[in-house]
Amino acid sequence: MTPHEKSILGIIGKDPEKGFRILLSEYQEAVYWHIRRLVVSYDDAQDATQETFVRVFRSLSTFRGDSSLKAWIYRIATNEALRQLSSHRKDIVSLESESSGAELVADDGYIDFDDKVAVDFQRAILSLPPKQQLAFNLRYYDDMSFEEIAKIANSTASSMKANFHLAKIKIKDYLNSSE
Amino acid sequence: MLIDNDFKQVGKRLPYNVSPELFSDITANVMDKIGKASVEEKPLHNNSRKKISIIARLFLATAASIAIILAINWDLRHSAKNDITDLENAFCQLSSDDQEFLLDVDQQDIFLYQ
To answer: Which residues of B touch A20 (CB under 8 A)?
Structure first.
């Protein structure tokens, strides 16, 4: 845990509402975009983000500090994203699933389909199994270390490194085949 | 089209938009839910008291039932013991000829010694 994270927890200990508002402002946007990249849907991402922070608040007393606060929050967020994806399917979506089922849906008013390069790139990422999506997104967009990604995915750094490299290869193959 | 090995062309750009009020909405919704959760948690103290009272009553009722069953069982055993004792006393009061007769009948009883 970083000194900054410890100070946030310290403030929460003295003044829960004030401290939690600081935590929210600190992590809210990053967590939202992390979830959005997995679920795509604007509404689903908002629901999952809100649920994430409610769970964070309720579970703060159980946080043992064996990972960074950020990794702990992201782990809850990832689970909420998977839970949201599962709500649209008959089966449960987990990191071990073959696919997440998330798609760039044409009638979602919050997707810019004019940006073809960005759209194709997201489609390539979404074609990956959830675990590879997670490894790629957290490394590429959030600049996380593989150790931190492993904490979020409840896996090992070497496994997440392998997932990341596999993801890169598959993304390139997808984009080259869709030209 | 993405050139092989060149992710820099797209960088971290996403094709997703959000409304300007999204993050303030999220904050408001989360604080609202947390606030409700905190309020709902307080009466739990009264609810837990009620639960303890119910559990205590159930425990007492169960304990009382077990006590009654044990008491009845003891009484039955005691009665049974008394019955056997009375029978033995009565047998001892018989003459030796009568005692032998009863024992003979007993041994020839096909329903007892099959």
So the answer is: 31, 34
pLDDT per residue as tens digits for the range A2-54: 999 999 999 999 999 999 999 999 999 999 999 999 999 999 999 999 999 99
Strand ranges, E, within B49-112? none
ipTM: 0.91
What chain B residue is nearest to A31 in terms of C-alpha separation?
A: B23
Chain A residues near residue B31 by CB distance under 8 angstroms: 17, 20-21, 24
Predicted model pTM: 0.72
Distance of CA A43 to the CA centre of its chain: 15
B10: distance to nearest CA of chain A, Å? 6
Q: How many residues are present in chain A? A: 179
Q: How many CB atoms lie within 10 A of CB A55?
A: 15
Has residue B111 got a pLDDT over 70? no
For A97, which DSSP code? S
